[in-house]
Amino acid sequence: NAGVTQTPKFQVLKTGQSMTLQCAQDMNHEYMSWYRQDPGMGLRLIHYSVGAGITDQGEVPNGYNVSRSTTEDFPLRLLSAAPSQTSVYFCASSRGQGRDGYTFGSGTRLTVV
Amino acid sequence: SQQGEEDPQALSIQEGENATMNCSYKTSINNLQWYRQNSGRGLVHLILIRSNEREKHSGRLRVTLDTSKKSSSLLITASRAADTASYFCATDRPGTYKYIFGTGTRLKVLA
Fold it and tell me: Average model confidence (pLDDT) for chain A?
């Protein structure tokens, strides 16, 4: 049981480049979310999904796209990377709101130069 | 905007002492969760307390919730060096499927 798997662990992008951060879970969780963590800011919600085909925006969605074609996968796409998107990105999943806590991946550390 | 705010921002104690950290939030909630994050790692879920509960225990952890004051506290008893980490509260927003995290308390337990 791998839990939540994020790839890559580290990435350096140039301004304007695009990329996809991968997230996969093998627990059959309906809820999945993407957060970014910046020093002194805690975690901020980017996008979330309550099931395959259903996504919605969080607190800081600008510059990011998501899709949820399967229960297992929830990729996060950066359309045109900017230095302000330098951060640590965490993907998390849970069975459902209020049923239990989120299981987090180990994170992707992204630097945009 | 942040829903939960932890207090204090940083806490340093001796091994064996108790550590208390607080979380305040702004709007009504259905439940509140506490997480631990070791340096450079992902978050680990510690405990979930529902709005109709006032206190919950898990091992050396004790969580209280006061919905009238919109606040929660996390008590770690008999702390160990391995408890050194950042602790975050997270609250749901009723009517949505969002969980919003606070800015965290950095706990350092000195051996």
Answer: 94
Q: Residue B43 has which token pair?
A: 């978050």
Closest partner CB to A43 (pick from B30, B50, B88): B88
Residue B5 has a pLDDT of 80
Question: So what's the pLDDT on residue B1?
Answer: 43
Q: Give contacts of A 1-40 with B, CB under 8 A.
A: 4, 31, 33, 35, 40
* A29-50 per-position pLDDT tens digit: 999 999 999 987 789 999 999 9
Strands (DSSP E) along chain A, which ranges?
4-7, 10-13, 19-25, 31-38, 42-51, 54-57, 64-66, 76-78, 87-94, 103-104, 108-112
With beta carbons less than 8 A apart as the criterion, state whether B7 and B24 touch: yes
What is the tens place of the pLDDT at every residue in B25-68?
Answer: 998 999 999 999 998 889 999 999 999 999 999 999 999 999 99
